[in-house]
Amino acid sequence: MPYPLDAAAVRSWCGLALEALGRERERIDAINVYPVADGDTGTNLYLTLESAARAVEAAFDGHTSSGTTPCLADAIGAMAHGALIGARGNSGTILAQLLRGMTEVLAAGDGSADALRRALRRAAASTYEAVAHPVEGTVLTVATAAADAAERAADGETGAAEVARAAHEGARTALQETPRQLAVLGRAGVVDAGGCGLVALLGALADALSGEVSATPVAVRADAPLPEAAGCAAAALVAADGCGNPGGPAFEVIYLLEAGDAAVARLRTRLDALGDSLVVVGGDGLWNVHVHVDDAGAAVEAGIEAGRPHRVRITHFGAPGRPEEPAMTARAVVAVVPGAGLAGLCAEAGATPVAVRPGEPPASGELVQAIRQAHAREVMLLPNDPDLRHTAAAAAEQARTEGVRVALIPTRSAVQGLAALAVHEPDRSFDEDVVAMTAAAGATRYAELAVAERQSWTMAGVCQAGDVLGLIDGDVAVIGADLTRIATTVLDRMLSAGGEMVTLVLGADAPGTLAERLERHVREHHLAVDTVVYEGGQHAAPLLIGVE
Question: Could you report the per-residue pLDDT of 331-351, keeping only the tens digit for each?
């Protein structure tokens, strides 16, 4: 029997959609040839919806603990927000915008057939607003066809379940036309991968509202042979022909951004000039930014100028002019780093960074996904935090079951990670590289300056909220009120045991004169010691220090 479009239906929709994308993930990955044939559209859609489903469950848990029941606005709002903060790749970012568009209509609390029709129309229109240069024959076209079919079905007698089923069938039909609308799909003889994901999502919605669950696979190839594609399998064509985006940018950059509408408008213009595949979704002060660029640092810096970027993810596709199919490289480095500045620095050095905010450590699944996106047979994993040891070990073990040789380098700080990355040599043997990187990290003492949030007992005595803490090798060694003075004291203590190189990583909140004063202090008081300074950006500690 049909069910109403309410909070329970949204919860059921999430669960069914996650199951459907789980079944279809590998098939969708296999036909991913546009905009970049990196074979991860199905995975990105699954991870995005997984984040959405977690948010919906959290909303239900919150209401259960308070003895209330969530309404439609609570559930669909949580689903859209979860997708926004967890969006992966171009496809996941667009999915987040589709859900946000639906939320703008359904949050009014009306789960009628007419409301669903209007929600689907708003969802389709919002994707065109989010994508800098819309292309037909993609998920955008499929979303529009779904909205068109929903409008044709909606009348005074039709329920929400019938509207959802009509939208699903309209999307399925439109999906089969995508190879005729987009040449790269036609040459490969496949349908659009993102559109496949949307068909699965709409099918789950129809199942949730009708109560009739179907597990019909989404057709991933064209119904009829296409002139350009006769006899060509997608993978073979991509490998031999490079259909898609030859000569495109080398990096995919994604981050959440806290910024106002005017700043985001300026950011769109700047990023559009830097690269392609630009998608900016969100609103109300929180946005998800996705772009393909050659200069990952410039894309992150643009976000810093616009507002507060966090959860920065930078994926290296390969050198400019790469083929569509990212070739498996011999070896890569995946590094967890605090702050956008360090993420950009690591990416430019050839690593795949996983940028984190304080108090928001990555899950093992995020590290596994970063290892996959490195597209390498051998991977060095740098956790750069002692608290991530078990999480990183779990990720490494999972990646090994997938055939990737992973070495966990025991880095306890970002400065140890920089030291390890500096000696990384892909041309030498794996074991020799592991030894060299581990030795470089172990030879680097590390320190951090932080600001106490509350009164606490430490190894250096009692600190009060607002005190500056100087931590050496993870333990509080100095407490004081002046950041520059504490930094100088920490440096002197570390260099008293010797050292040849000092690395300073400045957070966004560090005083403007701090680096200059510390460099001068080292020159005047510690002979033959070099100093190098990096900008850590937002969410990095006020100062990280490394002594080699």
Answer: 899 999 887 778 888 887 788
Q: Helix-strand-coil percent breakdown of the chain, rounded to 5?
A: 50, 20, 30
Radius of gyration of the chain, Cα coordinates, nearest whole angstrom? 25
The average confidence (pLDDT) of the chain is: 85
Classify residue 200 as exposed, middle or buried by CB count within 10 Å of its CB (0-12, 13-18, 19+). buried
Give the pLDDT score at 228: 37
| Nearest-angstrom CA–CA distance, 221 and 189 | 6
Exposed, middle or buried: residue 259 (CB in 10 Å: 0-12, 13-18, 19+)? buried
Residue 362, both tokens: 């990555």
Q: What local confidence, expressed as pLDDT, does residue 223 receive?
A: 52
pLDDT at 247 over 90: no
Separation CA 459–CA 311 (nearest Å) = 32
**Max Cα distance, the chain (Å):** 86
Q: Judging by DSSP bridges, how do beta strands 461-463 and 445-451 pair with one another?
A: unpaired
Given a cut of 70, whether residue 450 has pLDDT beyond it is yes
Q: Which whole-number Å values give the CA distances from 126 to 119, 168, 251, 470, in the listed order?
A: 10, 19, 26, 48
* Identity at 30, one-letter amino acid code: A
Predicted confidence at residue 361, as pLDDT, reads: 83
Examine the pLDDT at 16 and tell me if it is beyond 90: yes
Helix, coil or strand: residue 109:
coil
CA dihedral 221, 225, 230, 234 (to 10 degrees): -10
Q: Is 312 exposed, middle or buried (0-12, 13-18, 19+ CB in 10 A)?
A: buried
Q: Which of 252, 274, 294, 322 is nearest to 40 (CA)?
A: 252
Question: How many whole angstroms separate alpha carbon 323 and alpha carbon 380?
Answer: 24
Q: What was the pLDDT predicted at 406?
A: 92
Q: How far apart are CA 332 and CA 334, in angstroms?
A: 7
Q: Is 522:491 a contact under the CB 8 Å cutoff?
A: yes
Instruction: Judge contact between 369 and 315, C-beta under 8 A.
Output: no
Q: Quick check: 28 and 94 in contact, CB under 8 A?
A: no
What is the CA angle 311-316-317, rounded to 5? 130
User: Distances from the Cα of 88 to the Cαs of 50, 354, 366, 545, in angstroms?
Assistant: 11, 13, 10, 33
Specify whether the CB–CB gap between 490 and 450 falls below 8 A.
Answer: no
pLDDT in tens, 483-527: 999 999 999 999 988 888 999 988 888 888 898 999 999 999 988
Identify the weakest region by mean pLDDT among 55-64, 232-241, 426-435, 472-481: 232-241
Determine contact, residues 164/202, Cβ cutoff 8 Å.
yes
Which residues does 240 contact at the CB level (< 8 Å), separation at least 6? none
Higher confidence at residue 323 or residue 20? Answer: 20
